[in-house]
Amino acid sequence: MLRELFTEKARREVVDYGLLLLEKKLTLGTAGNISAFDPETGLLAISPSGIAYEQTRPEDVVICDLNGKVVDGERRPSSELGLHAALYRVRPDIRGIVHTHSMYATTLACMQEPIRPLHFAILSAGEGEVPLADYATFGTPELADAAARAIGRMNAVLLRNHGILTVGKDIAAAFRVMEDCEWCAEVQWRCMCAGTPAVLTEEQLADAARMYRGYGQKNK
Fold first, then answer.
1. pLDDT in tens, 67-106
2. Regarding the domain with residue range 2-213, which homologous superfamily does it belong to in the CATH classification?
3. Residue 80 known to be catalytic
4. What's this model's pTM, rounded to 2 decimal places?
5. Going edge to edge, which strands form the sheet with 43-46?
6. Catalytic: which of 80, 113, 129, 182?
7. Is residue 55 a contact partner of residue 23, using CB atoms and an 8 Å limit?
């Protein structure tokens, strides 16, 4: 029963957020991938390999275990299945992952520049700069290991000369981090074009983080 509930919900979310990636211009074609993880069953749902987001149906989304074994689905899983599985292993708090080749984050990744804390919007990714993982070929265990080592307690990591990966308590949370990181990456790129970006100090970022934790509506 738990497995059926997870697979149905996760497959729909992978499809829906894939379409949102296109709508928000965070990716093109078939680039990037999305997954959700359920610790109760030990299963993850991941977008299929090589199928355009607008053509992906819920039944195309592949259900696998963390060892990469397909347990439900007729499609091949994303070539970055190992990357997603590595992050779920190293960070038990993660339930959703979004990986894209968004323009500005990828620009910084190709410059081998981290996303620096120029603006408090970066706090959705954590307190500090978004780190850079060592370069490795896409779809390899080496890339999975590099990302798992680099991410630490942050909710985002840049993949050198490749793209960006964001994580969260579900796909929706990971998607919000992706939007914030892409905006911050664009601000940084524009600042670098105009002059020298002014990075927030640790104290300034910590003050903003305290405000950030109390932001929004409180639960009754």
1. 999 999 899 999 999 999 999 999 999 999 999 999 999 9
2. Class II aldolase/adducin N-terminal domain (3.40.225.10)
3. yes
4. 0.94
5. 70-72, 62-65, 43-46, 33-38, 96-100, 163-168, 156-159, 132-133
6. 80
7. no
